[in-house]
Amino acid sequence: MITDKLALVLAVLDNRPLREGKISDAAFFLNYPASQETISTLINDELRHAVETKNALALELTLYLGFHFHFSPPDSEALIPALTAFWHQRHAEVLRALLTLAPRSEIAVAAIYQCAATDHDYLCDDREDGIFNLATDCIYALAKIATPSAIAALQALTDSQWQPVAAKARHVMKKYGLTPPAAHNKPAE
Fold first, then answer.
1. Domain residue limits at 136
2. Could you say which of 10, 90, 117, 171 is the most buried, measured as most Cβ atoms within 10 Å of its Cβ?
3. Residue 137: per-residue pLDDT
4. 79 with 157, same domain?
5. Is 121 exposed, middle or buried (0-12, 13-18, 19+ CB in 10 A)?
């Protein structure tokens, strides 16, 4: 079933303009257990299930669906814990999905900070080469959120164990004109 689902999801992605190997949204809904009206509920249910069962492939497929058909605000409840989870390698995509929902909550900010500060095994080669794309994406996300807790998180990242991350956090704070809150508290981890 998962391979059929995978093929179906991949066939509907990037289907505009419709071309060989791709199917229309209408054809997708003829074969998928959702309709245009229920797809956001299904995306939310599948995101929650993927996180609860720690199913990396299900998370990836559901992210694809969300990017194609759009995420809805309730999806953040599953995206936030997925952002800090160690059982998958799609943190950049989870962050991108979360950002489509314009998160401003303390819990979202804490998750973005934790993601930036986490040493994911699958990124070790990048780290050794001085590449910190995920942390950089998180830094820019925090700068765009720009709440007091997001600014505090950026300030905390200026003390990162990785010099490129600390330098990027300082650079972005300066670029965006963000000053640390008077009472500097490291975000909850």
1. 103-189
2. 117
3. 98
4. no
5. exposed
